[in-house]
Structure formats: C-alpha cells, structure tokens
Write a structure and sequence with these properties.
The structure is a homodimer. Chain A is elongated, with a radius of gyration of 23 Å. In chain A, a hairpin with a 5-residue loop joins strand 2 and strand 3. Helices cover about 60% and strands about 5% of the residues of chain A. The model of chain A has no long low-confidence stretch (mean pLDDT about 95). The first copy, chain A, has 2 domains: about 70 residues, Multidrug-efflux Transporter Regulator, Chain: A, Domain 2, CATH 1.10.1660.10; about 60 residues, no CATH class. Chain A starts with a strand and ends in a 14-residue tail after the last helix. Chain A has 6 helices and 3 strands, in the order βααββαααα. The first copy, chain A, is mainly alpha-helical and about 140 residues long. Chains A and B meet through helix 3, helix 5 and helix 6 of A and helix 3, helix 5 and helix 6 of B. The complex binds zinc ion (4 copies). The site of one zinc ion has 3 residues of chain A, from loops. Chain B binds a DNA duplex (30 and 30 nucleotides) through helix 2. Chains A, B: It comes from Roseivivax isoporae LMG 25204. Chains A, B: GO terms for molecular function: DNA binding; DNA-binding transcription factor activity. Chains A, B: This is MerR family transcriptional regulator. Chains A, B: Pfam families: MerR, MerR-DNA-bind. Chains A, B: Keywords: Coiled coil, DNA-binding, Transcription, Transcription regulation.
DNA sequence: CCTGTATCTACAGTCGCTGTAGAATAGGGG
DNA sequence: CCCCTATTCTACAGCGACTGTAGATACAGG
C-alpha cells in the first residue's frame, strides 16, 4: 500500500494534483488508515499513470475520463476510443497551423526591424495594424 | 465619443473584456457620462486595437503592458521591444516543437489501431505505457 | 414620455492545476 | 515508550485571460 507521496513520486505528479483528481472524480476515493491518510494499491497506480501520460499527450481531463470509462469495457469496439484520439489529433494539428502562422508573422516583423528607435520600430507598427500582416493569423487562442 | 459596446464591436472585443482590461490597468479609466457610463476616444480605440492584435499574435498581457509602456517613449532604442518579440517567437517555436511530437505520437497510435475491441486497442495500450512512445513528448503543457 | 436596448457593479465559473495555513498522523531513532 | 520530523490532512485562495450571470440603472428613438 502506497502513501500519497509515494504514489506522487512514482508517477511524477504533485500530491495536490492527486487529491484534485479525486475531488473531480477521475481518481477513486482510496482506502484510508485509521488516522485518515490515503493508501493506494496497484490499480490506482496504473490509473494515475494512464491519466498522466494522456495529459502529456494533451488530452483534456474530460476526454481522459471517457477513455477510462471505455477501457472498463474490454469487449466493446474501440471505435469511440479512436474517435477521441482523432479529435485530439485534429486539435493538435489546428494548433500547429495557427502557431505556424504566428511564427511566420513574428519572424517577419523581427527581421524587418533593424533595432532603430521606438518611433519607427517595425514590430510596433505591425502590432498597431493587422493590415501589415500577411496571413490571417486571427481566430482562436494560442 | 464611443460607448463601450461600440468600442467592443469596432475592435472585436467583448464588453466584459474591455472592463477586465481596465480592472487590471492595461486600459485607462475612461471618462464617464453623467449617468456613469464609460465614453472612449480615438486614443483608447488605438490602444485596444494594439492589445487585441498583440493577443492574437500570442503575447501575454504582461508582455503587452511592457510593449505599451515602451511605445510611449518614441525616442528610445527599440531593443527591448525586439527582445520581447524574440522571446515570443522562441516561445511559439517551442510550442510547435512540442505539438509536433504529440502529433507524431497520436498519428502513429491511431494508425496502429485497426478499430478492434477495446481489449487490444493500440491507442489504450500506448496511453497506459509511455514506453510504447518513440519520442520524448513529455515536458510542459500543451 | 415610454419602451427597449445598453450599460452598470459585483461576483461566480472556466481549465488544470499550484500554493498556503494550521492541524493531525506516521514511523523511525534513542 | 516517547519524541521528533516528515508527511499528510482539510479548506481555501490564486494563476491567466477571460466569459457569463443577476439585478439595477441609463440612454436613445419614436
Ligand atoms: Zn524594433
Ligand atoms: Zn495581424
Ligand atoms: Zn483502437
Ligand atoms: Zn509517451
């Protein structure tokens, strides 16, 4: 049986994060010692490892919750699992596209500025006016 | 003189966002009507446009605050402006690198799954064990 | 003057944690 | 067996950058 700190170390998680996962119901309420401290077994270790690795791959906690639910039905088709992963892939690709547009604009405005005075800094001119941009980088968040 | 809703429409901002910018001190407190409603002039319109465009290019509000401060000293060298933009570029490039690693892993795990049963879904296997990954996608956030 | 839209303040909620305070517990050394 | 320190406990606030809500008030057109 593992104390929460041991579980944290083994999975590269902060202790508070584990408690947070319990609070939002993505980790189960574990057994407790007489004094009220959480004790974990191997099942919880595996589950937390799954959550952390999925987070590292960019899945939202909601998506991970679905994935965990699905993996409890081993006989089922994995079509839904695949759909979640495909959504995640499309999301990542959309972010990349957006960031590449940003990179191009940033690169260009930096290149055009020869470190003059603020009054005629190309970077500030571009920031003042999207008309100076070449791409349609606008849209959503970073 | 523009009401807040007009300013919002002209800059593609939500009304609450403008009030939020005022609250955190990145937009000035504007004049008010007798009844207490905010009224804006062209200077504020320009400032808000600068903020919004910079946000679209991924700059943090803190960075934007610095940029706005710097652009108030037209005679100064723009070296600091350039440094902020370079930081932003490096940040964007780091995000792209990370997202491309994620994209590769996601793409691979999706390709390896032929939509079988959950019990032997490659996607779930990879999520359970980072050892199945080829790249070191771990690190920071998305 | 009336009505409907816009604006006002204040506050809660989003996502995924992270940090803090103050109290209680666990476990090892003497 | 006692003590001490490290760990854990609960509860809550804060991050960044907004977004949404409720209930009250102001403005503008007809
Ligand atoms: Zn410059
Ligand atoms: Zn632009
Ligand atoms: Zn599958
Ligand atoms: Zn991995």
């Amino acid at each position: 049986m593992l104390a929460i700190g041991t579980l944290a170390k083994r999975t590269g998680t902060k202790v508070q994060t584990i408690r947070y996962y319990e609070e939002i119901g993505i980790m189960p309420e574990p057994g407790r010692t007489e004094g009220g401290q959480r004790r974990y077994g191997d099942a919880e270790l595996d589950r937390l490892a799954f959550i952390r690795h999925s987070r590292q791959l960019g899945f939202s906690l909601d998506a991970i919750r679905e994935l965990l639910d699905l993996s409890d039905s081993p006989g089922r088709s994995c079509a839904e699992v695949d759909a979640i992963a495909q959504r995640q892939l499309r999301d990542v690709e959309a972010r990349i596209d957006r960031l590449e547009a940003l990179r191009a604009e940033l690169h260009r405005m930096i290149a055009e500025c020869g470190s003059n005075r603020v009054a005629d800094c190309r970077i500030l001119q571009v920031l003042r006016d999207h008309g100076e941009c070449l791409s349609d980088h606008a849209k959503a968040e970073t």
